């Protein structure tokens, strides 16, 4: 696996990079999509910082190897911040806050990995 990874040059690119890296089993590539002190929430799990996010994805990729491409929705932008959205299979959403970095690339600062639709 290449150590050189394409960075996200727009906030909406993060979901595509996530999907590519998850399907490739690239844990370090997934971690690289987050700021060093980012927070990831997935159900009851809240992972803070690269070490905990790495642990979360190591466990997730050990159990799951197929990540269908999400439908990415246009981000809401306010200067160097953006809220990104992806519609996942079965109607769930992921919602993230991305921040533009000093070099013009984008990383997630907050990731709510999966919000399930309300049950009828």
Task: Give a verbal description of the structure.
By secondary structure, the protein is α+β, with helices and mostly antiparallel strands. 26% of the residues lie in helices and 38% in strands. It contains three helices and six strands; from the N terminus they run ααββαββββ. A hairpin with a 2-residue loop joins strand 1 and strand 2. The longest helix is centred in the middle third of the chain and has 15 residues, at 49-63. The model has no long low-confidence stretch (mean pLDDT 91).
List the SSEs and their pairings.
Elements lengths: L12 H11 L3 H5 L2 E9 L2 E4 H15 L7 E8 L2 E7 L5 E8 L5 E10 L5
Parallel strand pairs: 1-6
Antiparallel strand pairs: 1-2, 3-4, 4-5, 5-6
Let me know the average pLDDT: 91
Percent of residues in helical segments?
25-40%
**Structural class, from helix and strand content?**
alpha+beta
Any idea what the shape is? globular
Question: Largest sheet, described in full?
Answer: 6 strands, mixed
Strand content: 35-45%
Write a brief caption for the model.
This protein is α+β, with helices and mostly antiparallel strands and about 120 residues long. It has helices at about 15-25, 25-30, 50-65, and strands spanning about 35-40, 45-50, 70-80, 80-85, 95-100, 105-115.
What descriptive keywords fit this protein?
globular; 38% strand; alpha+beta; 120 residues; six-stranded mixed sheet
């Amino acid at each position: 696996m290449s150590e050189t990874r394409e960075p996200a040059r727009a906030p909406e690119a993060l979901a595509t990079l996530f999907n590519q890296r998850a399907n490739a089993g690239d844990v370090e590539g997934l971690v690289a999509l987050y700021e060093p002190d980012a927070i990831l929430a997935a159900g009851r799990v809240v992972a803070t910082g690269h070490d905990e996010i790495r642990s979360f994805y190591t466990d997730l990729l050990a159990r799951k190897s197929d990540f269908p491409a999400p439908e990415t929705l246009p981000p809401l932008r306010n200067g160097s911040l953006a809220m990104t959205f992806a519609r996942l299979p079965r109607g769930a959403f992921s919602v993230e806050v991305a921040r533009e970095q000093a070099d013009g690339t984008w990383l997630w600062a907050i990731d709510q990995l999966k919000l399930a639709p309300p049950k009828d």
